BAH domain-containing protein
Amino acid sequence: MRPAERSKPQYVARIERIEADARGGNVKVHVRWYYRPEESIGGRRQFHGSKEVFLSDHYDVQSADTIEAKCTVHSFKSYTKLDAVGNDDFFCRFEYNSATGAFNPDRVAVYVPLFFFH
């Protein structure tokens, strides 16, 4: 979804419902927002992926005109199996409570690349 400031990255949201007025001229979307790590309490950590987002408890109603494009938010497992990751691919491992900053689950496995030197 289009941010107010063009210099910011597009917002990611899950469309929960679409509704239009009787004439169909005013289309609204009910969304559930995804947050990027830097938008959360605690900010981005080393283990967060560059395409990682958190499904939040933040719901909103927006004009359908703010939709810029379709993207896909994968589970982490599905994301790691993609042959090619596109600009419109993201992954989610956590749900995020925007009021408290709590994550569910509160722990996940962290994968660290190993380097061997001879």
User: Anything to note?
Assistant: Residues 57 and 99 are 9 Å apart (CA to CA). The mean pLDDT is 89. The radius of gyration is 17 Å.
